[in-house]
Amino acid sequence: MNSWVLFMLLGTFVGSVSGLFGIGGGVIMVPALLFAMKKLGVSSEHAILMATRTSLGVILFTSLYSAWNHHRKTPLSIKLLKELVFFVIMGTAIGSFFVRAIPARTLEGLLMVYVTLISLKMWFGFRLDKNKESNPSVWGNLIIGNVIGLKSAFLGIGGGTISVPYLTWKRVPMTQAVGISAALGFFIALTSTVSTLLNPMTTTNLPQMTYGYIYLPGVLGVLTTSLIFARIGAHYAHRLPQERLRKAFALVLFLLALKSITKFFGVF
Q1: What is the distance in angstroms between the CA of the first residue and the CA of the last residue of the chain?
Q2: For residues 148 and 114, what is the distance between their CA atoms, to the nearest angstrom?
Q3: Which residues contact 38 (CB under 8 A, 6 or more apart)?
Q4: Residue 142 contacts by C-beta under 8 Å, 6 or more apart in sequence?
Q5: What span, in angstroms and rounded, lies between the C-alpha atoms of 207 and 223?
Q6: Distance, CA of 200 to chain centre
Q7: How many CA atoms lie within 13 A of 178 on its CB side?
Q8: Helices 104-124 and 44-73 sit at what angle, rounded to 10 degrees?
Q9: What is the distance between the alpha carbons of residues 32 and 28, in angstroms, rounded to a whole number?
């Protein structure tokens, strides 16, 4: 299959899922990109880096688009965004600096664990009760911001699965929490992309049009369809049985993680 077609199909799936369930596409995009990179003949040593860096290259544009649309409907709290952005950038920069020192097998293992946890969260629908204090503290922002940045730099996934629960726990309205999370995703992706491009690759044996482990056809292919299908997915989000869809998607994520785990340990 032509690589452009492969990534456009991936964008269709990622965009639809993101629109339907209101989650960042990274959680499904990175495992799918990892599979695609290996299909293109990229070695396991470099496939995980290409998957995570390419995912963040896509998030750079999708998060900005999402944040702008949220801001147009409900102006975001710039004060709260500024408080979190600095710490998120700090964590992302640190993570981007160290990610290449982590063995590819370890990164794949971390990705599997994370996808498994997200699938369980979606299946059981865990939610935190709102905190008595309504204002996120500086120390809370410091810890959460750095955790979000480090996790995103390592796994190529936006911070929504942490930032949205944290902000709603701190009694920030959901509309604000989702919009701020999208805006943070832009700064995560920007920091990671700049760090990646400034840090020379350790190999030249990669597909053409790969820059700093970012596979440009992958970014453009996914973007071509994901933005369109995200809008279509959002349109149908309120018309379909959400509970069944949520559990169906959780099951798909869990099976994807299970398949990766069995392959990781050489079971099948």
Answers
A1: 24
A2: 13
A3: 44, 47
A4: 87
A5: 19
A6: 23
A7: 16
A8: 40
A9: 6
Q: Do residues 210 and 51 touch, judged by C-beta distance below 8 A?
A: no
Structure tokens at 226: 């994901």
pLDDT in tens, 92-126: 999 988 888 888 888 888 888 888 888 787 777 66
Whether residue 184 contacts residue 88, with contact meaning beta carbons closer than 8 Å, is answered with yes
CA atoms 132, 134, 139, 141: torsion sign:
positive
Beta-strand relationship, 210-211 and 214-215:
antiparallel
The pTM of this model reads: 0.83
Q: What pLDDT score does 44 carry?
A: 81
- Residue appearing with tokens 């190999």: 203
Question: In DSSP terms, which residues pair with 210 in a beta bridge?
Answer: 215
Q: Of 46, 16, 3, whose CA–CA distance to 227 is shortest? A: 16
Which residue type is seen at 105? R
CA angle 223–234–112, rounded 5-degree value = 60
Q: What DSSP designation does 214 have?
A: E
Cα separation, 148 vs 238, in Å, equals: 29
Q: Name the nearest CA neighbour of 157 among 252, 27, 60, 67.
A: 27
